[in-house]
Specification:
The structure holds three protein chains of three kinds.
Chain A (H helix, E strand, L loop, with lengths): L10 H28 L4 H4 L7 H4 L1 H7 L6 H9 L2 H32 L3 H14 L3 H14 L6 H26 L2 H9 L4 H30 L2 H6 L7 H9 L7 H34 L4
Chain B lengths: L2 H30 L1 E2 L5 E8 L2 E8 L1 H10 L4 E2 L3 H4 L6 H10 L3 H9 L2 H32 L3 H16 L1 H12 L5 H9 L11 H28 L4 H9 L4 H29 L3 H5 L9 H9 L6 H33 L1
Chain C lengths: L1 H28 L11 E6 L3 H11 L7 E6 L3 H10 L7 E5 L3 H6 L7 H7 L8 E4 L2 E17 H7 L7 H14 L6 E2 L6 H13 L17 H14 L11 H9 L5 E5 L3 H6 L11 E3 L14 E9 L5 H14 L7 H4 L3 E2 L11 H8 L3 E2 L6 H16 L5 H18 L5
Parallel strand pairs in C: 1-2, 1-3, 6-7, 9-11
Antiparallel strand pairs in C: 3-9, 4-5, 5-7, 5-8, 5-9, 5-10
Helix pairs in contact in C: 2-12, 8-9, 8-15, 15-16
Classes of the chains: A mainly alpha, B mainly alpha, C alpha/beta.
Chain lengths: 294, 341, 423
């Protein structure tokens, strides 16, 4: 297959390539693995001011809890601080952000790719300029009207804002993806008497999934990781995971809370592992079909 | 597609962007042209837990009529754009006429907050973007050559820097690079310099932020390029091999041209994201050594300061900056578009 | 698969919705009014440290029947409070503020005088707790705070030195400690660029007897001999601080202390409690920690620190019923009956029945020394912010003290013109 670029290569090159991957994986995953290991220690070990090796062996963890590992961080985060509520909120936000942004994004991206008129180009450019707006300014601008109209604090408001902010990126990706789907497909359907929407519904939708899934992954990651919007626009009870983790840190770090944050970071990453493993083939084939074009 | 059909297909996404991006931009541009009314003060006696003293307070009744007549404030035109906190035309002019050479002029320029931030922002953008593209490309090539079974796990771990950043970055990485943390300590050992501290010098802070930027964004480039590699035209590759092209020549003349559109796409998105760099500066408490345009906005909006017009002005300047930065790419896209039409 | 996922998510949503309905019905069931609140809505915005959490819990205890009480105690409170109190009716009915954060609310005229409510409902608080601005009670204070000096008895004994009373003493002790190898970096302060660094400047500048503004105007007056002496002293201190001082905030300094690395530091009184209990500290640290009063500098005998209070305010743009409910809930939250051993260590409470704990020693010493309260001036925050951005250039050795102070004044004047404070 495609791997023939590097197929039948010399052993030297193969070793080099494997070595490079190993080095990269260490660089990429090390902070996370370190966090994972450290999440079972007490704060004084993980953030040891004496010797960083304490984070590995857990000197203070042994004296404080009696064993080299402790689940206190997880217990505090999940049971005492009810981290599961934040997980639930994040699932709701992610689900609706991905669905909404893909629905309106595919319609818009499809239209852009099928319109030969100049204005389609300018719309794409305007969308790009929209993306240049720093998110901090946007969020600060939302606060006053949202408070005045009683929209502040709700999950639904945050969902719409996240969808809108990410729409330029979604449009660009989906537009390039639809361009790769041959125009003959829907045009012949329309010759056969379908309306534009029917052509989209029966001809395009069945072949568009790979590209949509990839775009969906990026929307998902945005909603999952967002801090700027969720920290400012959600009330306490509607907090998603990332602002919740930040609240464990606070301006005045209360004893032990820091380790709640560390344990939550690990907990928040675990579902992504499942997701990526599950979708990795689709992600790649999606981008392939999309072959995003600049 | 007919105009009418296009309209209905495009309406939902257009509405979302109009309401949540376009209207805020309009209000930001408006805000940047106005400043607050002249405040009327009166001296009053304030008493708190610790005792009483006379202090100045704003006389809200006195300005109320003025505020109601002109809710936006005083019209200031472009003066906020040219004041010391932004383009600082007067100060730059003085620096230009008063300095002996380029070095002195740059020294004076860097002392102005906007230019100080701009210089870091541009350095960051133009080092991080090419580096992450190269790194992403190399990873993609290497992962592509891996055994099918390993790929899933390797892809997940390669994505980690993109997934778990904002909080891990500010909390755990910040600690790891401390002179007593694992990374900081290892660097001290490697460079045989026990006083080496990444946080204490401006130069090293910049390097640290740039390395972090590359680390954080390389996975994005990697995923996009990796996907592009899956669609390499096999026949071209094979004929290149039959013609006796070396591995390097195949990459240079077949693979790179094939994924060039993807490189443009990644460059476009990353130039924009890097120009708006913000999170690492706050996360690493690096503001003493490096500030960016987005950081200036954050600082102006923050807490008790609330310099709305100033923040609005910097935001507009950021958008203009991005537009200038992307103009070569946009011109290219325009040409492609016309060719197609 | 996607369909299954959707179904699962839809069910989760439905489940949550059902759950919420259930809780609210059960709240209705236990029905009668508490704290004298018949009806109304109470919503609190404030900072998130433990003492404020206690107040939030106290207010929430008044929830009953139709009276819904919620609180958003968050790090982001300063960014949210002005927009959150701006609407009509405002989202938040109560803002918990300090003497710096009440200013933006006053500037925008968002909080109401409490005189009527006090006259009507009274409350278990003293006259001194009423924060009066221009003759009207605008806030009720419930705790005091200050940055003060903290030192380690054992390490000072090792160095054979007396406990410092002035910053000059600190320099002398630090030198001995460094020379004898007792501590690598003997002094700690929250010098991280931004708010913290500017606050340290403010402290030291007041200690030098400096004035921030020219009398009766918003024009700055920091670029003078006091300002230069202040920066000089700060620079001398940084020689004995961790070289990363420009990135170290209170949390990091606190962690260094607990690890046993620091013999002397400047720290907030509100964070003293855990330093004395030893929770999370290296062995021996808590036992020899002494909370001392404020230091003075340059022989002036003026405490080089500021005093702070925290209190509650009630929004202006809400109905009178909501304001009454809010007032009653907050009065209940700061009632002397909340006091117990645990609550007592969280802060220096201004509440009757509070018996000073060892953790309050530093703040009380600061109050006794007549330190200056942080000014409630409309334009103080702008100067603070300008200093926070400019001072790092001096401390990292990039420019002279005069140049730095001139830059800070120029940055402040630009900002103050935009806000209409200066013509």
């Amino acid at each position: 297959m495609a791997s023939s670029v590097v197929d039948n290569k010399s052993p030297v090159l193969r070793t080099l390539s494997t070595l490079f991957i190993i080095v990269w994986l260490i660089i990429a995953a090390f902070p996370f693995l370190w966090t994972f290991w450290g999440s079972f220690k007490v704060e004084l070990d993980f953030f040891s001011k004496e010797n960083w090796t304490n984070a590995i062996v857990g000197v203070r963890t042994v004296t404080e809890t009696g064993g080299p590992f402790t689940g206190n961080g997880y217990d505090g985060a999940w049971v005492q601080e009810e981290f599961w509520r934040a997980v639930l909120n994040t699932s709701i936000v992610c689900f609706f952000v991905v669905c909404t942004s893909l629905t309106i994004g595919t319609l818009g991206g499809y239209a852009l790719s099928r319109s030969g008129f100049r204005y389609a180009f300018w719309l794409l450019i305007i969308a790009l300029i929209f993306r240049a707006m720093p998110p901090i300014t946007l969020v600060a601008g939302y606060l006053l009207p949202f408070f005045e109209w009683g929209l502040w604090g709700h999950l639904s408001t945050t969902i719409i804002v996240l969808v809108a902010i990410n729409q330029p990126f979604t449009l660009w990706m989906l537009h390039s993806f639809f361009q790769k789907i041959p125009k003959d497909l829907d045009e012949s359907a329309m010759v056969d008497g379908c309306t534009s929407f029917q052509a989209f519904r029966y001809v395009i939708i069945p072949v568009m999934w790979p590209g949509v899934i990839t775009t969906g992954l990026f929307s998902f990651l945005l909603a999952y990781n967002d801090f700027a919007v969720t920290a400012m626009l959600l009330s306490k009870e509607n907090q998603t995971m990332v602002p919740k983790i930040a609240s464990f840190l606070g301006t005045t770090q209360t004893e032990g809370n820091v380790m709640f944050a560390v344990a939550s970071v690990v907990s928040a990453t675990a579902p992504l592992f499942v997701l990526v493993m599950f979708f990795q083939r689709q992600i790649v084939s999606g981008l392939t079909a999309g072959a995003v074009k600049g | 597609m007919k105009h009418r059909t296009f309209f209905w297909f495009f309406l939902p996404t257009a509405l979302a962007m109009l309401l949540f991006i376009f209207l805020p931009i309009v209000s930001v541009v408006t805000q940047s042209l106005f400043v607050d009314h002249q405040q009327v003060f009166r001296e009053v006696e304030n008493c708190d837990i610790f005792g009483c003293k006379n202090e100045m307070m704003i006389d809200n009744e006195a300005t109320e009529a003025l505020r109601e007549a002109q809710p936006l404030g005083r019209f200031a035109g472009l003066s906020t754009y040219f004041n010391r906190s932004h383009l600082a035309t007067t100060e730059v002019g003085q620096a230009w006429s008063g300095s002996q050479g380029w070095g002195e002029f740059l020294g004076l320029l860097i002392n102005l907050p906007f230019y100080k931030a701009l210089i870091f922002t541009l350095t960051f953008t133009f080092t991080v973007t090419p580096l992450l593209i190269v790194l992403g490309f190399v990873i993609a090539i290497a992962v592509n050559a891996l055994n099918q079974k390993l790929k899933g796990v390797v892809i997940f771990f390669s994505l980690l820097p993109m997934i778990v950043t904002p909080l891990v970055g500010s909390l755990i990485l910040f600690w790891m690079i401390d002179s007593r943390g694992i990374i900081g300590n290892t660097l001290q050992y490697l460079f045989a310099n026990p006083d080496l501290s990444l946080k204490a010098s401006t130069g090293l802070t910049w390097v640290m932020l740039i390395v972090y930027g590359v680390w954080h964004a390389a996975p994005f480039a990697f995923v996009v390029f990796y996907a592009g590699l899956q669609t390499l035209p096999q026949d071209t590759l094979e004929s290149a091999m039959i013609d006796g092209a070396t591995r390097w020549q195949r990459i240079r003349y077949v693979v790179i041209p094939h994924i060039m559109p993807l490189v443009t796409f990644v460059a476009l998105i990353q130039l924009m994201d890097n120009f708006r760099v913000f999170e690492p500066i706050v996360g690493f408490n690096a503001e003493a050594h490096a500030t960016s345009l987005s950081w200036i906005i954050y600082n102006d909006l923050g807490g008790e300061t609330r310099l709305l017009s100033s923040a609005a002005t910097t935001s507009v300047l950021t958008i203009i900056g991005v537009a200038i930065l992307l103009s070569p790419v946009l011109v290219r896209t325009w040409r492609d578009w016309n060719r197609k039409v | 698969m996607l369909k299954k996922l959707m179904l699962a998510a839809a069910m989760t949503v439905a489940f949550t919705a059902a759950n919420t309905t259930f809780t609210s019905t059960s709240a209705l069931a236990d029905g009668h009014a508490k704290c004298g609140i018949e009806n109304g809505r109470v919503n609190i915005i404030g900072n998130e440290f433990p003492a404020i959490q206690t107040i939030g819990t106290g207010a929430k205890a008044c929830a009953a029947g139709d009276v819904k009480i919620s609180a958003n105690l968050t790090k982001e409170h300063k960014n949210i409070q002005v927009p959150g109190l701006s609407g009509n009716p405002a989202e938040y009915t109560v803002a918990i503020v300090a003497n710096s954060s009440i200013v933006p609310l006053m500037n925008d005229d968002l909080i109401r005088p409490l005189d009527d409510l006090i006259a009507k409902h009274g409350g278990n608080f003293g006259k001194n707790q009423q924060i009066t601005i221009g003759g009207k009670v605008m806030a009720i204070g419930f705790m005091a705070n200050a940055q003060h000096f903290v030192y380690r008895k054992d390490m000072l004994e090792k160095a054979g030195m007396e406990a410092p009373k002035t910053y000059e003493d600190v320099l002398a002790v630090a030198k001995v400690m460094k020379d004898k190898g007792i501590a690598q970096y003997p002094f700690g302060g929250a010098y991280s660029a931004g708010w913290g660094l500017a606050q340290e400047f403010n402290n030291m500048y007041l200690g030098h007897g400096g004035k921030f503004f020219k009398d009766g105007s918003a024009m700055p007056s920091i670029n003078g001999p006091e300002g230069i002496a202040t920066l000089g002293m700060m620079k001398k201190l940084t020689a004995y601080m961790n070289p990363d001082f420009l990135t170290m905030n209170n949390n990091e300094i606190n962690a260094e202390w607990k690890a046993g690395n620091l013999p002397m530091m400047q720290m907030w009184g509100s964070r003293a409690g855990p330093l004395l209990t030893g929770e999370g500290s290296a062995p021996g640290v808590a036992e020899s920690t002494v909370l001392s009063g404020p230091l003075s500098v340059a022989g002036k005998g003026i405490p080089a620190t500021t005093l702070w209070w925290d209190g509650f305010t009630i929004a202006k743009n809400i109905s009178d019923a909501d304001a009454e409910a809010s007032y009653l809930a907050m009065v209940n939250a700061i009632d002397p009956k909340i006091m117990n051993d645990d609550v007592a260590t969280q802060a220096v409470w201004m509440i009757d029945g509070y018996k000073p704990t060892p953790a309050s020693a530093g703040v009380f010493a600061t109050m006794k020394a007549n330190a200056t309260p942080y000014p409630m001036l409309p334009y103080q925050a702008l100067l603070h912010s300008a200093l926070g951005a400019e001072l790092a250039d001096f401390l990292s050795g990039k420019e002279s003290a005069e140049k730095t102070l001139a830059d800070a004044e120029a940055a402040y004047i630009t900002a103050a013109k935009e806000k209409g404070f200066i013509k």
